[in-house]
């Protein structure tokens, strides 16, 4: 009922806010060139901004059978008025005798960055269109740690603390036979 009343008076419901999939920036640059000896070099560089963190208390505050979040807290934290979000979270945590969070706890994580490269050498066989392609690939060449994860429950000390990371540098090689 409260959400409907807010919707009627302001045009916004309690669900108004940023999408959990809100990636502001997504830049991909790719290229390919032929090196001496007819070796093909290709690569792709990506930078993707992190999404805001969904928020919940993983509890039913109003008895409707649905998990809620503290009153006044948007569906996601990390975009918009961070000080207001932090105040709501810390006021709720205080009712549970939990220590307050600092502002950096609700900020959006750093962007994901990655550079991948591939070298390919095609060797034509004497039998028509048949060929063998030899290749070597490297993923996350710069070995940047791209952290993600973390709890979305504002009651937990692990709220918005990265709990894992994407794979570090990986290199593989192989061959492909085309006929």
Question: What's the mean pLDDT score?
Answer: 87
* Number of DSSP strand runs: 9
Strand proportion, as a percent range, falls in 25-35%
Runs in which pLDDT lies below 50 for 5 or more consecutive residues are none
Oligomer: single chain
Please give a structural write-up.
There is one protein chain. By secondary structure, this protein is mainly beta. The protein has helices at 2-10, 82-95; strands at 26-35, 39-48, 53-54, 76-77, 112-124, 131-139, 147-148, 164-165, 170-178. Helices cover 13% and strands 33% of the residues. The strands form 3 sheets. Strands 1-2-5-6-9 form a 5-stranded antiparallel beta sheet, with no helix packed on it. Strands 3-4 form a two-stranded antiparallel ribbon. A hairpin with a 3-residue loop joins strand 1 and strand 2.
Summary of the model, kept short:
The protein is mostly beta strands and 179 residues long. It has two helices and nine strands.
Detail the topology: elements first, then pairings.
Blueprint: H1 2-10, E1 26-35, E2 39-48, E3 53-54, E4 76-77, H2 82-95, E5 112-124, E6 131-139, E7 147-148, E8 164-165, E9 170-178
Antiparallel strand pairs: 1-2, 2-5, 3-4, 5-6, 6-9, 7-8
């Amino acid at each position: 009922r409260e959400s409907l009343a807010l919707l009627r008076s302001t045009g916004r419901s309690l669900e108004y806010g940023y999408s959990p999939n809100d990636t502001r920036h997504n830049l991909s640059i790719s290229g390919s060139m032929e090196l001496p000896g007819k070796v093909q070099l290709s690569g792709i560089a990506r930078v993707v901004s992190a999404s805001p963190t969904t928020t919940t208390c993983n509890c039913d505050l109003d008895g409707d059978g649905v998990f809620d979040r503290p009153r006044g807290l948007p569906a996601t934290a990390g975009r918009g008025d961070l000080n207001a979000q932090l105040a709501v979270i810390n006021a709720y945590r205080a009712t549970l005798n939990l220590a307050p969070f600092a502002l950096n706890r609700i900020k959006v994580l750093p962007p994901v960055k990655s550079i991948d490269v591939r070298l390919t050498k095609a060797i034509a066989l004497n039998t028509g269109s048949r060929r063998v392609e030899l290749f070597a690939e490297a993923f996350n060449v710069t070995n940047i740690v791209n952290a993600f994860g973390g709890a979305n429950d504002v009651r937990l000390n692990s709220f918005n603390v990265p709990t894992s990371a994407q794979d570090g540098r990986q290199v593989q090689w192989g061959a492909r036979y085309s006929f």
